[in-house]
Amino acid sequence: YLDKLIRLDGQVGFDEELCPLCENGAAEIRCNECQSGELLCTECIKHRHEYLPLHGLQRWNGRYFERLSLHELSLVVQLGHRPRSSCLASTPRNMTIVHVNGIHRVKARFCECDVSVERWQQCIRMGWWPATVLEPETCFTLALMRLFHTLNLQGNITAYDFYRTLEGLTD
């Protein structure tokens, strides 16, 4: 088993130079959360993660995989609309989202159409609990809050220890 685990840390078994989906871009990025672990190009990984903006990525640099975020790939999460539709009246803004797998920087675009709801409501509809109702910039996912609640009740973990663990997952 150890040999198989070590192989996952390298590029062994993924020797394609071109992305297997589009057969166009360089296959150099993998997702830590998705089960396949296949290497994809930048555009295909962004397309595949439009609905999964909190997945952690890694890019092969020729020697090892280094941490990469969808924020670094300029993925913009559209709030208040379907992901592929856009609200042109809004400018993307940087947000911090705390999730069960770490702390993420996300570029999000709030809907500012005539029929739009408050920004804090758009966050909640996405499953993100805003730290403030006025101009939310930091949110905690509902999955994270459920996990903390369970760990706090069952294991008496403090909010401080829980957050420090998330910081460790992020680094």
UniProtKB/TrEMBL annotation:
Residue ranges of every copy of the CxC2-like cysteine cluster KDZ transposase-associated domain listed in the record: 70-171
InterPro entries on file: CxC2_KDZ-assoc (IPR041457)
Protein origin, superkingdom: Eukaryota
Descriptive protein name: CxC2-like cysteine cluster KDZ transposase-associated domain-containing protein
Lineage: Eukaryota, Fungi, Dikarya, Basidiomycota, Agaricomycotina
